[in-house]
Amino acid sequence: MQMELDAIIIGSGAGGLSAAICLAKEGQKVLVLEQHDVPGGWCHSFYLKGHRFTPGVHYIGLLGEGDSTSELYEGLGIANDLVFFRMNPKGYDHCWIGDERIDLPADFDELVLSLSERFPKEKKNITKYLNTVRDVSQQLQLIPKMKGFWDNLMIPFRTRKMGKYGLFTLKRVIDWHIKDPLLKTILNIQCGDHGLPPGTASFPVHCAVMDHYFKGGYYPMGGGGALVKAMTNRIKELGNEVRTSQNVTRILLEGEKKKRAIGVELETGEQLFAKRIISNADPDITYLDLVGKQNLSSKLAKRLSETKYSCTSLMLFLVVDMDMREAGMDSGNIWLMPEGDKDPDDLFDDMMKVDIAEGDEFPGFFLSCTTIKDPTSFDGRYHSMEVVTFINHESFSQFKVGDKRKSQEYLDFKEHLTQKVIRTMENTFPGITEKIVHKEMGTPLTNEHYINSTNGCVYGTEKSLKQMGPFSYKAKSEIENLYLCGASILSHGVAGASYSGVQTAAAILGKTQRDIIQSDENQTVQIYEAEDSSNYPDWMKQKIKVKESRVEANTEKFSKS
Asked: What is the architecture of the domain spanning 5-44+225-308+461-515?
């Protein structure tokens, strides 16, 4: 065995890449192995007929000066390579609930004012509830920053609201504060960002999600792939490597009573060795598939058997020859629900029904138009849209045996679901059916194949009370020199998964998150307005002009032929 590597990282999601950068900055030799043919996990981008899509990046928050995501990219040394567009500040998220159209503005005070004007009888309750949400989130963010005896001694005093509400569900807390059913639905709607109904969702997790976007949402120029490119380039700049199409089949161990990770074995049979192994895969895949149940303690094996994973999704990728701004879309996301009087928990139950082939339409959607979010990707004619609905992974259980993912039965089932989505879209955007140029459906099996997520889950482990905070899986495993990172460890989402890699690296280095990630005045994320091109630099205007000219040339060519 040659221990030339300090760390081998399995999986190139945001957590794995950020862990690699943090270790490499400290002079460690790292190697990232990715089973897919492109790096990035949920953050990767791909192209269909020349149009770009990103399955797992729809918006990112806290990118202002001094905010945590901005500090993350500065600390990783990639901020100078990133450009973001601020989504519509008047409504980065839009709630389309039945006939209601309610916007979530990108400012805390504006949000309070907007909701209070719409629900005047709830004004005091809205103010109290949203302040509670903000306080709990900010107190939650204090915990990893605590350092030393006095900081830790002050935790109970500095996190009082977190202690008061930390063990309750979102439904319980919101019912204490809010009475109006429609208002409850609006304040619950971002549950889609962690894939749970209010009756199951952890209130602190929901607070963290809402607070993450209180200052608005941002979308990266170039989609999620731009984040991946910046991170992989940084790893290479630091003298390390990211290898794709490298399927790890086993984590190599030594020792009888005390197991120790020493390397990995690839699908080809090649063995690579390192002082430490970091897995960016889900806990089930890491422990059961790569380590082997026989090498685990009975306590860990029992815990794995009881672990629940988040829901999975259907995602329809659309290219349309239609003016989506004129149809009612802007750079903000749309959360689409049938009516306001339906309880969100009941709606989620409807979405989790196993037989999703029944019915003419789906009960709820998340809509994103990436060519409006990223103006440099719009060619002046064709828009790219991502339409997401959550489902139960068991809906596709009949196709998990053998190689049925390529069967005609599977393709027919996908087409049936595609048409069901399009029918729902037609009711929202009349005439869109005839304007579809290209369509492709992603299923739970797609997620398993490309992302290697458990049952195609979209957020790692389920973010319920019993699986979050002190009850979540830890970065350091029971096996010596084996560590974990990713959405199941600290938190989900782009920023949450990235920070999980930072904390895993900190655990290895014997440092704190604050030691590793600090503001850097030499690093700055560039931010422009998605809704206002007046301040775009010349290079960006030229980029847009070139893209539009290509479509114009092709249109003229086809018209002549």
From this structure: 3-Layer(bba) Sandwich (3.50)
